[in-house]
């Protein structure tokens, strides 16, 4: 069983969240850092600006986005952030936080799927 939860950053924090990690490149609009209650902001594990913008323009391209994002996650630029996230997961539950409105199709969901496959 995965100890990773995915949650919108606008939802209230809960004791069972464990370590709360923001996985967006940009700070979410309309929420203060105090209200966000995050433990870590891992910008480097978020999709590249180009990929994020392409997916935002064509949200129906979910499969293509997941594939391209998985490729980015295997790259050198994200290795330190991925290692940091894996270290947190060894210590306990982690909640991946995102700002997107779509709760089914967003980078945090894709990242959780990737982590579940690549531990």
UniProtKB/TrEMBL annotation:
Xref: InterPro entries: YeaO-like (IPR052552)
Highest taxon of source: Bacteria
Protein name per Swiss-Prot or TrEMBL: DUF488 domain-containing protein
Organism from which the protein derives: Mycoplana ramosa
